[in-house]
Amino acid sequence: MYDDVKKVAGIYIRVSTEDQAREGFSLPEQEKRLRAMCEYKGYEIYDVYQDAGISAKTGNKRPEFERLLQDIKDRKCNTIVVLKLDRLTRSVYDWENILKFLEENEAYLDCANDDINTTSANGKMISRILTSVSQQEIERTSERTKVGLAGAIKAGHIPHRAPLGYTRKDKTLVPDMKTKDVVIRIFNLYHSGLSYQKIKNIFNEEKVLGKTNWYDTTILKILENEIYKGNFVHGKRTKHPTYYKDVVEPLVSKELWEECQVQQKKNSRSYQRTLTYLFLQKLKCPKCGRILGGKATTKKNGNSYFYYYCNDCKLTIKEAVVEEYISQFIDDIVEYDSVVNQFFLPMIKQKIENPKEEIEAELKKEKDKFKRIREAYVNEVFTLEEYDAERKKVENTIADLEEKLSESEICDELKFTPEDILIKRDIDYINSIKYPEKFKEYNKRWKDFTREEKADLIMNYVEEITLKQFNNKFCVVDFVRFRESVANSMNDLYRNGFLDKNETAVFGNVVGSIRFSEYRDENEVWQHILRLRQFYDVKFYQAIYNTEKQVFYFDFKEDNKAIVRVFPMEDYRKIDPDVKMKEYDIGVLYVVKDDGTLLEDNEAVFKYIPDKTDGVITREEMVSGVSFAKVKPANEIGLEECTVYEEE
């Protein structure tokens, strides 16, 4: 019956990849072969339907194939002519639907390379087998592709366009010297409390990267992109995305990235205020755990008083109460911020993040680009207006790179170490003793900051302040949790002896505070003292600490001596972890208050740090070179006694 029906053919041709084209599946080649087959079999050709660059996966939209099916429904043609069955589909599910469609519309299928007969049960079975093989092939190809893609991603070959801040080098995503600072700045601004709307406005006003079309969504996408902390999410919009860790060099720390995600909820428009609240978003209600709101009252004298409250639990706490508590140790954070983040880190980061060789390479590229732009203008490729716009962009980039190169060349001469941090802090402390008024000019304390500056410090360093309640009315501060990115850095420096802390101490029968640092190698201590002695006559003194009574036993012959810092002479954390020893040997650095600097220029002690020394010195040489006193053992004197032997 079917043989008697006149065959009107709709030729369907399709390619999906360049590989198929290279293997002889190009559209012209398919059409040529299928026209020849129709002529041989006596088919009338109604039309040619071609889908270019579309695979046969389920769900893909193939407009020409849909048009062919519609023409069959409209009785314009009755036979689908294809090169191979996989040109129609590689899905068993889709093939069953096609078979049903052909049967319902009394239509046929003819394949040039596959002997397919859809009019019999055996023919349909053969077609199903061939389709199953095609489906298996595409699934295996997909599996191999995923494995290869995973390996490529782990090697830093990210299969997307390079995001802002990155460029490609040998197919690998690497930081872009021209734009990475923009991304870092976005994270820092957001971390400091600015919303992405404000950042957008700032960037548009400053014409960052020569653009005035920065959008809220642009800033938000950058802040949410895991690539900037070194990770990559493939298939983010699918049901089963794949997460890859540490596949590219990060532009920001993981701590900063995570903190910005938390900050996103706190930076919404509903939190924008006309007054500056120091602890907004940092205080939680001790009853219900909700973040406290802020309010202020202004008296007739113009003074404003700030409070934090929970409407549901009817609790309030004065800002002054929180500030009084936190001011007990916030100066340590302020000093850390001044020494580490302001004095050292900018130079260290400049040296690490802007290596000289990479800057020089980028600078050469931009200068070559400038030459090409000028030649294009001379050859009338650009209009004068276009030339000026392109020229300014390149000139600005060149200026930025030349500035970074200059800074990098300066930093090549600088070799900063954690030891320099301790040197700077000791020098600062001695400066505060010797020249207190001048010290205030160079160093701010918590009480010297404006409300805005205080709020910035709290935003940058404090994660959360826990409150507790008394008598169902009054709230007090229970605990302050600092941001991990800050606390971890400070703790690492402290554990390794490169950072001091103020500790409560008992001196005989007097309670006070003392600058204490952990153990460091003896030779490093002597080198440290030698460096300090370039600026001040710093002396060394050995004392005793009684672990049972928790008392320091030492004193000075003269009242005008000031302790700079104390430290253990042995690593007691290792040799006495359970604190079974009764006494520890403690080293003491001190200065005579009336002595000035050893430098001719007093200003220099506030601007610089002593150079590193090349010499090696022993304990005996150090002792003979500075005043040294030895205290009687603790068990020989009472709490109120502080007897000192004559200086040796």
Average pLDDT over all residues: 76
Sheet with the most strands: spatial strand order:
2-1-3-4
Query: Could you give the distance between the termini?
Result: 124 Å
How many whole angstroms does the radius of gyration measure? 38 Å
Q: How many DSSP H or I helices?
A: 20
- Low-confidence sequence ranges: 145-151, 269-273, 347-353, 410-414, 624-648
Please give the share of residues in helix. 40-55%
Assign the structural class, choosing from mainly alpha, mainly beta, alpha/beta, alpha+beta, or little secondary structure: alpha+beta
Strand content: 15-25%
Would you report the number of β strands?
Answer: 19
**How would you describe the shape?**
elongated
- Could you give a short account of the major beta sheet? 4 strands, parallel
Keywords:
648 residues; alpha+beta; four-stranded parallel β-sheet; 20 helices; 19 strands; disordered C terminus
List the helices and strands and how they pair.
Layout: E1 8-15, H1 18-25, H2 27-41, E2 44-52, H3 63-73, E3 79-82, H4 92-104, E4 108-111, H5 121-154, E5 166-169, E6 172-175, H6 180-191, H7 196-206, H8 216-224, E7 232-234, E8 242-244, H9 254-266, E9 293-298, E10 304-310, E11 315-318, H10 319-353, H11 356-378, H12 384-411, H13 418-434, H14 436-442, H15 451-461, E12 462-470, E13 474-482, H16 484-495, E14 501-507, E15 510-516, H17 522-532, E16 539-546, E17 551-553, E18 561-568, H18 572-575, E19 583-592, H19 604-607, H20 619-625
Parallel strand pairs: 1-2, 1-3, 3-4
Antiparallel strand pairs: 5-6, 7-8, 9-10, 10-11, 12-13, 14-15, 16-17, 16-19, 18-19
